[in-house]
Write a structure and sequence with these properties.
Order of helices and strands: EEEHEEHEHHEHEHEH
Structural class: alpha/beta
Number of helices: 7
Number of domains: 1
Largest sheet: 5 strands, parallel
Shape: globular
Radius of gyration: 17 Å
Helix content: 25-40%
CATH class: Alpha Beta
CATH superfamily: P-loop containing nucleotide triphosphate hydrolases
Number of strands: 9
CATH architecture: 3-Layer(aba) Sandwich
Distance between the termini: 10 Å
CATH topology: Rossmann fold
Length: 207
């Protein structure tokens, strides 16, 4: 099976060993491991956000074959810490999400008129996810995307992302310390620790 995303001998500062990995379309991988073991650094390297060695290919096209902003819209990193710089939430979107889309993650459309400082960390996290998905990235690199969410909101985000991955050639890697979440979404087939990944590099399987 041809991989949607492939990384070869990828290593960045903070990673103990290089990683080889093949991710197939439709796959959602859950990645876990101790703090400081290089999980976030791996995802940032895949998105070409930090200096790294090795190769990352999307549909056999290397990251260094295209401008970095183009790559990052297709292989998108979602940080647990979100950034906001405009006066209202809505100004941060290339196209405002519909009321229905906002309701999918437990939000009301009036939130678009609010100042970001008025929002909780969980609200910001869900909005940042919707903001990124508006670019329709092919690979989602999710760094503890539901860490600040209550249980109901977590389930809503999981459903949203699972639905998103079924639309065309898409895949995701999700860093999560939540064992129950890993069991719901990926384990045992698409679930691995950073230590296992650095040793054996799991291969993409049929979704």
């Amino acid at each position: 099976m041809q991989a949607l995303l492939e990384i070869a001998d990828l290593q960045a500062p903070g990673m103990r060993q290089p990683v080889n990995w093949r991710i197939g379309a439709g796959q959602l991988w859950l990645l876990y491991g101790p703090s400081g073991s290089g999980k976030s650094q791996l995802l940032k390297a895949m998105a070409d956000l930090i200096e790294h060695d090795g190769k990352v290919l999307l549909e056999e096209l290397a990251a260094d074959s295209m401008p970095a902003p183009v790559w990052r819209r297709q292989v998108m990193y979602f940080s647990a810490e979100t950034a906001w710089w405009m006066e209202t939430v809505g100004e941060h979107f290339i196209q405002s999400p519909s009321a229905q889309t906002l309701q999918q993650v437990g939000l009301n459309d009036t939130i678009l008129q609010q100042h970001p400082d008025q929002l909780s960390s969980g609200e910001k996290q869900r909005l940042a996810l919707l903001r990124g998905l508006a670019f329709e990235p092919k690979v989602l690199l999710l760094d503890e995307t539901s860490a600040n969410l209550d249980p109901d909101s977590t389930l809503q985000v999981e459903t949203l992302l699972q639905d998103y991955l079924q639309q065309g050639q898409r895949a995701a890697i999700w860093i999560s310390h939540d064992q129950a979440q890993r069991d719901r979404l990926a384990c045992p087939t698409y679930c691995c620790s950073i230590e296992e990944l650095q040793k054996t590099s799991p291969q993409a399987q049929e979704a």
